[in-house]
Amino acid sequence: MDNIYIEYNFTVTPTVPAIEILIAELGNIGFESFVENEHGVSAYIQKDSWNAKLLESVFVLNSDEFSIEYNHNEVAQTNWNAAWEKNFSPIQVDNLVSIRASFHENPNLKYDIVIEPKMSFGTGHHETTYMMVQHLLQLELENKKVLDMGCGTGILAIFAEMKGANPTDAIDIDNWCYENSLENISRNNCHHITVLEGDSSLLIDKKYDLIIANINRNILLMDLSVYANCLNEKGVLLLSGFYKEDMPIIDSEVAKYNLKLDTFIERNNWVALKYNKL
Question: What percentage of the chain carries pLDDT values higher than 70?
Fold first, then answer.
């Protein structure tokens, strides 16, 4: 029997940084999954965990800095595909990478990634995923051992394999992301990606040539020492999931682990940083 969920559709002005704050607050009160769009975000919580006064504790909804309107309705788990299909249009990165669903036309670029994100983060539309793809385009990944930490849909692990990475671990703490990554890896005929459900405790005694971590700032700061210990000599660490103004605190922490900032990409105030292990 399918679970019943409550879907909230939020229209947010301005979207940055309100959407990130809103998602963080909703996650703290039991919302499980989110689908961002150009006007805001849709959020989902199991009906059993919901009550009519649930949003009263969400600070950002009462902030004078943002205008946030919303409505809600019941949806069955089987209807979630329709939720993301409404908002998921194909995109292209630097005229080299297409990211699309199976029902979109193939633009025949050098790399073609087909995903069905369902309720997982990582369609390429968000600035952080887009920039990580840009970083990966510049890296030589043939036979490199790769970690995609906080893999979401598995999109970055999939792209790494398309560029020759072998083997790759894709890890996420969220069960939806774990299941969705498995589906998308199969959908893209990848054969060298292992998907794991869990957190950084899974990384004990593992070593990688490239670590990709597109996660929120606080989790990154907490786990940077683990990533540094897992990185091979002359390895590369790609970090994103935070704003440009967060760069000093990230850089200060990373510097403790013999890693040096090489380049960064900025997109709508989000940044993606590339570090080299010395």
Answer: 92
Cα(220)–Cα(217) distance, rounded to whole angstroms? 5
Element (H, E) at 205: none
The most distant pair of C-alpha atoms in the chain lies apart, rounded to whole Å, by 54
Do 69 and 135 sit in the same domain of this protein? no
pLDDT digits (tens, 9 = 90+) for 218-237: 889 999 999 999 999 999 99
Contact 215, 241 (CB under 8 A): yes
Say whether both 76 and 146 belong to one domain.
no
| Secondary structure in 3-state letters for 130-182 | HHHHHHHHCCCCCCCCEEEECCCCCHHHHHHHHCCCCCEEEEECCHHHHHHHH
pLDDT of residue 1: 43
Domain boundary among 24, 57, 85: 85
Domain count, the chain: 2
